[in-house]
Amino acid sequence: MLLVDDSVVARAVIARTIDASDRFSVVGAVGSAAAALEFLGRTTVEFILLDIEMPGIDGLTALPALVAAGKGAKVLIVSSSADEGGPKAMQALALGAAETLIKPSAGELSGRFGGALVSKLERLCEDSIHAPPVALVRSTPTTTRSFTASPAAPRSVSPSEDYDIVAIGASTGGIHAISQMFRAIPAGFRLPIVITQHLPASFMPYFAAQIALLAGRPCEVATDRLRIRPGRIIVAPGDAHLKCVKLRDGGAAFRLTHEPAGSGCMPSVDPMLASIADVYGARVLAIVLSGMGRDGAEGAQRVHDAGGCVVAQDRDSSVVWGMPGAVASSGVADAVLPPSAIGTLIASRRRP
C-alpha cells in the first residue's frame, strides 16, 4: 500500500504497524499528493492511506485524482480531522474514499490505533470485489449518453410508461452522484425512494441526514418491518441487506436480512433490487451508480426481466465505473446517463 502523509514520524510509525501485520505491507511512503500521483503512475497498490491536512494540495482536493490514478485502489483517510460523521469525513466519502479513521497524536499512533487501522484494512480487503472488463458506452449526439446493447432476453411483461418506486444502488463515488441527482429532483416528488449505498454502519445516520437536506423531505435508515410510504426516502443500514416484501393489505415493507450475498457486499444492492422487482414488477425504476465491483448487476437483471426500467450512471461521471459498467455491459440498461440527467428522468416519472 501507499502512505501519503506530510509527517515523517507518522509515516514511519504507520509503516511499522502495517508491516508488522501478517497480511499487509507498505511499498511506498510519500509526503505530498503530488508525490503520490507520481508514485501511482509507475506502481500499482491495493490501498492508499491518505492524510487530509498537508501543505500544498490537501488530501480532499487531491482525492478524486488519487482515486483515478489508483486504478481500483481503495483510499482510507487517516487524519486527525476525519471525525466520524463530521463534514470532512462525509466529504471524503462523497469524493470516493472507502473509509475514514481518526489519526491520534504522534505519541498514540501505536497500540489501539494500530489495531483499529489493521482491522479497517482487513474489512476493506474482504469487501473488495474487482469488476470484470465492461463494454464501452456509445455516445449519442445529445448531451447525455445512451447504451446500445446486443439483443437481450425479451421482457416477461409489457413495460409500463411510469413507475411507483425508485431503487438506487451505489458504492465508491456514489454519494457525490446521489447529491447531483437529488439536485434535479423537486422537493415535492412523492414516490418512495430506496437507497443501498456501501458505507460503514456508523455513517448511515449522517448519510440519511445529508440526503434529507438535499432532497427537502424525510430520509431515514431502514428498520425491520418499516412500511414503504409516499414522500419518504429510505437508506439501507450499513450492516444488513434491505429486502422488500408485500403486505396482506396490498402495501409493502422492508425486512432486514444478513445472509451472505453473491457480491460479497453487506449491504448488497442485488437483494434490494431483486426483491423490489418481485413486489413491484414493471413499476420499478432501478438506478445503479458509481462503485467498484458488480453489485447490482444481478438485481438489475431481475428488474429488467420483470419489465421494470434500469438506468446506469455513465462512465465519464463515475468515480469507478464497475457497478454501472457491469449493468451497461449486460444489456439490461434502458439508459446510461450522468447523475443530473438521471435526476431529471426520475422527476419526469417517465421511461427514457
TrEMBL record:
Transmembrane segments: none annotated. It is an enzyme of class 3 (hydrolase). It comes from the Bacteria. It catalyses: [protein]-L-glutamate 5-O-methyl ester + H2O = L-glutamyl-[protein] + methanol + H(+). InterPro entries: CheB-like, CheB_C, CheY-like_superfamily, Sig_transdc_resp-reg_Me-estase, Sig_transdc_resp-reg_receiver. Keywords: Chemotaxis, Hydrolase, Phosphoprotein. SUPFAM superfamilies: CheY-like, Methylesterase CheB, C-terminal domain. The modification 4-aspartylphosphate is found at D51. Residues 159-352 form the CheB-type methylesterase domain. The active site is at S171, H198, D295. Residues 1-118 form the Response regulatory domain. Its EC number is 3.1.1.61. This is protein-glutamate methylesterase. It comes from Sphingomonas albertensis.
